[in-house]
């Protein structure tokens, strides 16, 4: 009888905590009602305005439809705020979308919270399943001991956020922190860059890289749609960036070798016309299940060779500031992926650390 009794007690404790969280009185703060932008991770921050999107409206008729629709997703976006509250709640709504089979609900539509205390130490904060997945989603964080702290709220990478509020204890201090203005690291890539498929938003490799380096990161990952169209490079070239990362092969392997060569050549020369910022071009990840499946993704391996040859040719022609990352530089283990196409938490850490090493090499940080 002990196990049923223990289970009942555990359920009562969870139910009690949930009821307390529901009864908590909060004062509410809307990022979109601030006088200055507080949304991090947007390259066209001022132009996008009151939207949790990643491309401005003027691109709607220029970029492919799927890219445009995916640009409405909040991948890589975050909001920072300071408060001394012990209890917080995030309340938000998202546009209807089917649940993706290769994605946890928590990563596709959830939020993630980190905090930096007065000693400068940053830690993740779990919400211990104090959530409500209704039409309005709520995540509650209770009995926090950060005292006065700076929080960063990562938004869902595969959902279109239509409204969001942050609640804190009534009477507690609270202020949003203006968005970062320093030159960003621009990441243009596939579903892997957008945020597939770790367990939660803070563990997408671009968000891990942001915490590892402290750089201002802009996520321009578009699931299944990183095909290096000239119009995308035209758009990206508008950005005054610290560095450009181009990670196309997980999608662009579907192109012919000539298309890969022509498109990466156009892209790099387009960026070089307007910017002297370093450009990192990356091969696809190493095949994690190669022992028993040695022929899988042979076309992707061939596509990597076409990409490398195009970059080598540009370097021979004197185009400066191009750096090449080989697939082997992303140290995947067999446990790094969910289905051999998208990295899990382990794989995302490997991705982020590979790019961290490359950025350190470039900037000698």
From TrEMBL:
InterPro entries: GxDLY (IPR032740), SGNH_hydro (IPR013830), SGNH_hydro_sf (IPR036514). Residues 27-174 form the SGNH hydrolase-type esterase N-terminal domain. Residues 1-23 form the signal peptide. The keyword Signal applies. Pfam families: GxDLY, Lipase_GDSL_3. SUPFAM superfamilies: SGNH hydrolase (SSF52266). GO terms for molecular function: hydrolase activity. Keywords: Hydrolase, Signal. Residues 182-360 form the SGNH hydrolase-type esterase domain. The keyword Nucleotide-binding does not apply. This is SGNH/GDSL hydrolase family protein. It comes from Prevotella fusca JCM 17724.
């Amino acid at each position: 009888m002990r196990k049923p009794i223990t289970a009942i007690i555990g359920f009562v404790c969870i139910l009690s905590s949930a009821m307390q969280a529901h009864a908590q009185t909060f004062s509410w703060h809307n990022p979109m009602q601030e006088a200055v932008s507080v949304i991090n991770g947007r390259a066209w921050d001022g132009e996008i305005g009151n939207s949790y999107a990643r491309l401005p409206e003027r691109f709607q008729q220029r970029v492919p439809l799927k890219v445009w629709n995916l640009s409405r997703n909040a991948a890589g976006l975050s909001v920072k705020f300071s408060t001394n509250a012990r209890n917080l709640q995030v309340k938000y709504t998202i546009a209807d979308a089917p649940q993706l089979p290769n994605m946890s609900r928590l990563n596709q539509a959830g939020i993630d919270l980190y905090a930096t205390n007065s000693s400068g130490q940053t830690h993740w904060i779990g919400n211990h399943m104090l959530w409500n997945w209704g039409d309005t989603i709520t995540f509650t964080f209770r009995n926090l001991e950060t005292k006065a702290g700076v929080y960063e709220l990562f938004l869902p990478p595969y959902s279109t956020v239509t409204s969001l509020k942050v609640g804190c204890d009534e009477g507690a201090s609270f202020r949003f922190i203006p968005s970062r203005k320093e030159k960003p690291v621009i990441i243009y890539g596939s579903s892997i860059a957008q945020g597939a498929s770790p367990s939660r938003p803070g563990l997408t490799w671009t968000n891990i890289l942001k915490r590892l380096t402290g750089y201002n990161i802009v996520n321009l990952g578009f699931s299944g749609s990183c095909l290096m169209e000239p119009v995308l490079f035209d758009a990206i070239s508008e950005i005054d960036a610290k560095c450009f990362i181009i990670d196309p092969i997980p999608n662009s392997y579907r192109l012919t070798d000539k298309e890969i060569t022509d498109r990466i050549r156009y892209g790099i020369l387009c960026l070089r016309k307007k910017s002297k910022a370093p450009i990192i071009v990356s091969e696809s990840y190493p095949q994690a299940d190669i022992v028993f499946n040695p022929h899988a993704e042979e076309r992707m391996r061939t596509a990597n060779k076409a990409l490398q040859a195009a970059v080598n040719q540009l370097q021979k022609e004197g185009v400066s500031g191009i750096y090449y990352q080989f697939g082997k530089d992303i140290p995947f283990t067999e446990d790094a992926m969910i289905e051999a196409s998208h990295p899990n938490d382990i794989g995302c850490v490997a991705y982020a650390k590979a790019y961290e090493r490359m950025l350190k090499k470039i900037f000698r940080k």
